[in-house]
Structures are given as structure tokens and as C-alpha cells.
Specification:
Strand content: 35-45%
Strand order of the largest sheet: 4-7-9-10-11-12
CATH superfamily of the largest domain: tt1808, chain A
CATH architecture of the largest domain: Alpha-Beta Complex
CATH topology of the largest domain: tt1808, chain A
Number of domains: 2
Number of strands: 14
Order of helices and strands: EHEEHEEEEEEHEEEEE
Largest sheet: 6 strands, mixed
Radius of gyration: 17 Å
Structural class: alpha+beta
Length: 196
């Protein structure tokens, strides 16, 4: 992830770093197909996802989607989907987003307005610090109950659960360990199955 200044010149009177708003973001994205996020008023350019990244998103959708639909727990979305975290991020686009049925009111026509119940990010070489620090803090501060980080390099899955306003590592799952989510319960897959 990079703080982007290259396309900012396309805008008349572009905001300074730290001053980007949703309206500024919308002006910029109306002129380009490039994906961006805004966290704490800073504009970040999203690199195109790799084929491995997209394959992992697809596998997670298949495994989680079936469980969520069978149990009628809520709705699962894949990026690109804009998530507005008021006063923190306007917007972010997590790789996967889950909203429980009882919180469907945050789902609007073109975006999710408010913290989802679960977000999942898949690390790439350019996003490690961004996902582990910048987004971690934004998701924690906004009150997202559960944050998953899937690491293709180590073939591991970290699940963080919000307790008293702070993320605690619930568990780090490696290869053959069955995944358990505090939010979703026991899941019928292992981390290793995502990389087969």
C-alpha cells in the first residue's frame, strides 16, 4: 500500500495528506478505475490483486459462504465493497466483509455504513504493514468484532477478537488445524485446505 500523490494532481484543489474526506475520495474515483482507501484522512492506493490473492478470496467465499448461508447468519461480501467507518475510514475495502442478520441496517445500496462484524484481509508483500498496523488500528478503533489476517507466505490464519475495545489474538491456525471463530463457531476447513 502506498500513500498516493500521483493522481491527486487530477483534482482541482486536492486535499493535503490527513485531510481527505469521502467527498474527495468520490471526486477522485469518479475519474479513475484505480482502487483507493482513505484512513484517518490519508489516501492510499490499492495495488491490483495477484492471482493467488484472488484464488484465496474465492476459496474463503466458498467455505464461509456455505456455512453462513446454511446457518442463516448474515451476508458475506467480497471486495470491491466500500465500508465507511465514521471518523476513521472513508472508505476501506476489505477483501471479505461479513455482517450479521441483526445488523443488516448498516448495508446500504452502494456501501456498508458502519463497522461490519468481521473483516478479512489477505496479506501481500506490499500490504503487510498496512494490514497489520494501519488497518488493524482502524478496525479495532471502529469496533469490528473480528479481524482475520490470512498470510500466504506462512500459510497461516490469525484471528483477532475484540475484547474491551482491543484486539486479542484468538489463535493462529497453521496448515492442518481446524479453524474456529469466536463469531462463527467451528468451521469445516483447515488453513492448509486454502492452499491446496
Amino acid at each position: 500500500m502506498i500513500k498516493d500523490v500521483s493522481l491527486v494532481t487530477r483534482l482541482e484543489n486536492p486535499p493535503q495528506p490527513g485531510e481527505w474526506t469521502l467527498a474527495d475520495y468520490q471526486r477522485l474515483t469518479a475519474e479513475t478505475d484505480t482502487r483507493y482507501e482513505v484512513i484517518a484522512g490519508v489516501l492510499y492506493k490499492m495495488p491490483p490483486p495477484s492471482t493467488l490473492h484472488q484464488l484465496l478470496v474465492t476459496k474463503l467465499i466458498m467455505r464461509l459462504g456455505n456455512l453462513i448461508e446454511t446457518n442463516a447468519q448474515g451476508i458475506l461480501y467480497a471486495s470491491p465493497i466500500e465500508v465507511i467507518l465514521p471518523e476513521i475510514a472513508t472508505p476501506v475495502q476489505p477483501d471479505l466483509v461479513f455482517v450479521r442478520n441483526e445488523r443488516r441496517s448498516i448495508i446500504k445500496k452502494n456501501r456498508i455504513e458502519g463497522p461490519p462484524d468481521l473483516v478479512i484481509e489477505i496479506l501481500s508483500p506490499s500490504s503487510i504493514r498496512y494490514d497489520r498496523v494501519t488497518k488493524f488500528e482502524a478496525y479495532e478503533t471502529s469496533g469490528i468484532q473480528e479481524y482475520w489476517i490470512l498470510n500466504p507466505k506462512t500459510q497461516s490464519l490469525e484471528i483477532y477478537n475484540l475484547e474491551d475495545g482491543l484486539y486479542n489474538l484468538h489463535n493462529e491456525y497453521n496448515l492442518d488445524e481446524p479453524v474456529h471463530s469466536p463469531l462463527l463457531g467451528d468451521l469445516a476447513f483447515t488453513t492448509g485446505s486454502l492452499f491446496e
